[in-house]
């Protein structure tokens, strides 16, 4: 084998990516980070080449001004039809206004 695959553990992944453990697992859940492989009953590791590819993709996205998967998902989640600014303008300013819009507002006496 000319270039054997290497499995790296979480500490090495954190050091190479500059991300915390919770951020790595959050991004894995969102499909925005390589998944680990099982090494045993309670042990996982990541394939080194997949982490290298992920890092290269982040560098490329940063240098070319492309949005990351996370930012596209955030914009779609906040405002599927007009971006973040439109969502901010349309959002009611208080919990009471939100309840009134949803028809769930009630007074302290229990009457609506």
Word description of this protein:
- This protein starts with 6 loop residues before the first strand and ends in a 10-residue tail after the last helix.
- A 3-stranded antiparallel beta sheet has the order 1-3-2.
- The protein is built from 6 helices and 3 strands, in the order βααββαααα.
- It is mainly alpha-helical and 112 residues long.
- The chain has a domain at 7-66.
- It is globular, with a radius of gyration of 22 Å.
- Mean pLDDT is 76; it is low at 78-89.
Brief summary:
By secondary structure, this protein is mainly alpha-helical. It is built from six helices and three strands, in the order βααββαααα. It is globular.
Q: What is the first-to-last residue Cα distance?
A: 74 Å
Counting helices, strands and paired strands, the structural category is mainly alpha
How many helices? The count is 6
What sequence of helices (H) and strands (E) makes up the elements?
A: EHHEEHHHH
Note poorly predicted spans.
78-89
Tell me the strand order in the biggest sheet. 1-3-2
Compute the number of strand runs. 3
State the share of residues found in helices, binned by percent.
40-55%
Sketch the major β-sheet: 3 strands, antiparallel
Assign an overall shape. Answer: globular
On the 0 to 100 scale, the average pLDDT is 76
Strand coverage percent? 5-15%
Round the Cα radius of gyration to an integer and report it.
22 Å
